[in-house]
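Table 4 source record.
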Amino acid sequence: MDTATPLGTLFSLFIIGLSYFCGLAFIIGLLWRLFGYLRTPMPWPEAITPAPTTEGGALARVLGDVLIFPNLFKADKALWVGAWVFHVALAAILFRHLRYFTYPVPGLVLYMETVALFFGYVFGAAALYLFWRRLALPRTLYISNVPDYFALLLLGLIAGSGILVSYWAHVYIVDVKAFILGLLTLHPVAPPLHPLFLTHYSLVLLLLLYFPFSKLLHAGGIFFSPSRNQPYQVQMRGKRYVNPWDSPAG
């Protein structure tokens, strides 16, 4: 498709408009959901014991939950391996994608080119493993529903299309970077009209649109969990709490 034609120009404008719509939906939706967590009243401590007794200890516990998933490790070590590898590979892939947003590209990002394909395959394999577990184990099958399968399927398709467009059906990276930087600087240019790139990019836009309104929001919501981010206040043990919005009994 030639962008010089009216149809090509219209298609390019559609992709650009869709990009801004999904980006704004992601940012506004994410802030709206996180603000909702922040303003939820928490009049009494809800720390799960054993728990740290200081604010610093509570922060360390939250960071531990984010980085190494200790509770999941205690509950299900096989699931912990799949989930931890999945998240580490995802973090590496996102970091590697900085090459599309930065100029000059940081040296560490360039160095990752030697292992980028490895992380792509590992991420896809981990997504398939987590998908298989939901179907194969009766207890996970029982608690799983359509959004659980949809999220894993979407992430797996993004991984597969990304590998194909990066290492098999190549897209010209200069055109991709010009398109992404044009969007970020509010000077949009026509996207590369490469079928696999457009497929991969459309799946990413769908993920941005879906993320704030799905279970994937645990990525930000974990920081607002009162059972994890509060220290255990020993001096308050045994005290009766009264909701400040309750009216006194008549």
